[in-house]
Amino acid sequence: MIKKFLAAVQFLTICPLPSSIKIDEQDLGRSVPYFPAVGLMIGVAAAGLDYGLGYLVPLPVASVLVVIFLTAVSGALHMDGLADTADGFFSSRPRPQILEIMRDSRTGPMGVIAIVCVLILKITLLMVVPQAVRWWVLLLMPFAGRSALLINMAVLPYARPEGGLAAIFYAHRSGFHLAWAVIALAAIGWLAGGWAGLIASLASFAFALLFAGYVHGKIGGSTGDTLGAACELTELVPALVCVIRVYGGWAGI
Which of 87, 103, 127, 187 has the smallest CB count inside 10 Å? Predict the structure, then answer.
């Protein structure tokens, strides 16, 4: 159990593990259920960092630094997937060529635009999230993003018959992962933010499913790149829901 969690930490973050801990491919493949736990760990760190920065720098600066942290802590793994997905999906090519474009390590204009848009949106949303709820929004963002990985793997087949990095995880995927993701999202959302947190979590779950449907329509299944895109885009949802709640006139809920 501990090795599976550490395998998830090793894969999803840049946190170094002691050299005495040996993680093999089997441990990595079976680490999928622990992805949300790693997301929660990142969320706690982000909320703590934001709290400390609040005593040192203005809110806009703190928002930028926290977003940099959220990107850097994963080694920009998911952001790279977002860029490759955007390059492929917006290329107006048939499925085989989309998959080929996504495999290319070079980032095209659509990938750059996607990265810039997501970063700007994250920073802007954090700048306008009310101070009183900022901590649990930051807690939920990476948690929802890593939960989206489970959701997409649970509902979509693997799109590359020749194999790839995500094939390691697909070998151990289960329908249980979908149930685990929604239960974990609902529980953490409720405990952190009450009704507002629950709504934000369920909206994240719904968005992850909608994105999975979009991906299926484009390439018939998921890849490592689309999983990264699902993580980055779903990470936006808790902050977006919170802002809509406040500025849309239903803050009483």
Answer: 187
